[in-house]
Amino acid sequence: MNNIKTLGELKKSGYVAKGIKDELRNNLVEKIKKKENVFKGIIGFEDTVIPELERAILSRHNINLLGLRGQAKTRIARQLTDLLDEYIPIIEGSELNDDPLNPISGWGKSKVEEMKDKTPIAWLHRSERYVEKLATPDVSMADLIGDVDPIKAANLKLSYADERVIHYGIIPRSNRSIFVINELPDLQARIQVALFNILQEGDIQIRGFKLRIPLDIQFVFTANPEDYTNRGSIVTPLKDRIGSQILTHYPKNIGLSKKITAQEARLTPQQRQSITVGDLLSNLVERIAFEARENEFVDSKSGVSARLTISAYENLVSTAERRALLNGDTKTIARIVDLLGVIPSVNGKIELVYEGEQEGAAIVAQNLLGKAIRNEFIELFPDPGKLKKKKQPSPYQSVITWFSEGNTVDCLLLDTDKNYQKILNSIPGLGELVDTYVPKLNAAEKTTWMEFVLFALAEHSLIGKSSLERSVQFKDLLGSMFSEKDLFKGGEENIN
User: Given its phi and psi angles, is residue 211 left (phi above 0), alpha (psi -120 to 50 degrees) or beta?
Assistant: First the structure.
């Protein structure tokens, strides 16, 4: 079909023009009938967001995706292009993607009237039919709709009454395309008002021109509920004109969150080959985000983006990789102590309330990591708190007793794998404890779990832990009370 070059050839081919909403609908119907996955790579929305989105497309609605940051709103919008026809014909040189069979611009109509069946046509690929605009307070009517261009008027020697002096904005130029406005509430109210007629009637007005340009656009808006109170709001008449408002959400469990992180993390082939990250470490990375979403120091209205866990996972791998490079190892497995390397990824991804700001981002991040370890531990091991309340024998007693006798263990951040295993194997009862509750582990995995138990016992206040700049030291709880537990302050005090 895209070999056709003139309007006459297009007519003979039997081509039938259709609106973009019908185009999306028809292609979605075919994909549903074939049971194809329409939104590939969108994880966790299979029973919630995606069915609502499909219903909106079948209803030929404009759509508002409402949700906190990092909930794949823009990604969903960009994937809508997969539901467009591969190519559509336009009048060659048209600013507004004029349909050759039904031009809407003055230029397009004149072109067809002048050249008739010899009107040259071009073919527009679906990848070129997606337009995205970030809403900011400085976006103007001229940006979105258009305005009179005095330079064009002067160059062409035209009066301002001539339609040819108009410079069309981004919305008219998106005719027959998907047009996305991200962060809609950030648009000034008077600019939102300008969208009323476009959404309801499908036409535009520019200055004093009597224009009736029936635009054919699929609008998709994204918005964050926080914006409704902090920065702006979507004016009520505009919300009324948007056919479907769809609520997005964060992954509902750690399993789904892990799938998203594994899919989105940008690791090099070398990193994938040389660094092994076990399920335990993967779970802990995801649990940090889940803990943050419920933490009293984190602003829940702002949300905790999925980008937190993606960045944290990348930093975890890089921390292990750096250690392997310094030690001359070709392969290594990520350790619990490597999680200290994810703190910079957490610092910039959470919005803190006033009390959190007083604590400091690094302290909050460290506490989130501690809570993640503590809560992950009781998923597989007996809860020390419950054991104490019920006055039951503790399976951790041999380890606790060993430390209470004055023994200490230093886990160096850059320790070799061989020395790392030797240190942990020197603790009586630790290996047997892991074998009891997490059997069938290989040697490297078992060592990671042994380290995890030490961190967890410290988080449950059964043994002491002191964090220095280059190591984490485990010792008797009473002895640790005389040293600073915070990673950064502790490091400075010990160095000085």
Answer: beta
> Among residues 475, 470, 474, 462, which one has the least CA distance to residue 487?
470
Alpha helix segments (H runs only) across 188-330: 189-193, 195-200, 227-230, 236-241, 254-264, 269-274, 279-292, 307-327
Taken as a whole, the chain contains a residue count of 496
- Domain positions in the chain are 7-247, 251-380, 381-496
Residue 119, classed as helix, strand or coil, is coil
What is the chain's mean pLDDT, rounded? 88
pLDDT tens sequence across 236-248: 888 899 999 999 9
- CATH no. of 7-247: 3.40.50.300
Angle between helices 397-404 and 430-437 (to 10 degrees): 160
The structure tokens listed for 428 are 């009586």
Model pTM score: 0.85
pLDDT tens digits for 361-408?
A: 889 999 999 999 999 999 999 999 899 888 888 999 999 999 999 999
Q: Provide the token pair at 58.
A: 């079948």
Q: Which residues contact 104 (CB under 8 A, 6 or more apart)?
A: 96, 98, 175, 213, 214, 215
Instruction: Identify which of 188, 153, 187, 181 has the alpha carbon closest to the alpha carbon of residue 167.
Output: 153
Paired with 409 in beta bridges are 474
User: Residues 345-357: pLDDT tens digits?
Assistant: 998 888 888 898 8
Burial class from Cβ neighbours inside 10 Å (0-12, 13-18, 19+) for residue 87 reads middle
Side-by-side strand order, sheet with 178-182: 130-134, 178-182, 218-223, 63-66, 244-247
Which amino acid is present at 238?
A: L
> Distances in Å between the alpha carbon of 71 and those of 303, 343, 417?
10, 22, 38
325-337: per-residue pLDDT in tens?
999 999 999 999 9
Contact 92, 268 (CB under 8 A): no
Confidence category of residue 319, pLDDT binned at 50, 70, 90 = very high
Provide CB contacts within 8 A for 218, sequence distance 6+.
20, 21, 24, 62, 80, 177, 178, 179
Per DSSP, 352 falls in state B
- The answer to whether the beta carbons of residues 70 and 261 sit under 8 Å apart is no
The CATH architecture assigned to 251-380 reads Orthogonal Bundle (1.10)
Pull the structure tokens for residue 345.
């990824």
Q: What token pair was written down for 220?
A: 């998709």
Kindly give the interhelix angle for 430-437 and 443-459, rounded to the nearest 10 degrees. 100
**How far, in Å, are 27, 45, 226, 359, 368 from residue 353 at the CA level?**
46, 29, 14, 10, 15
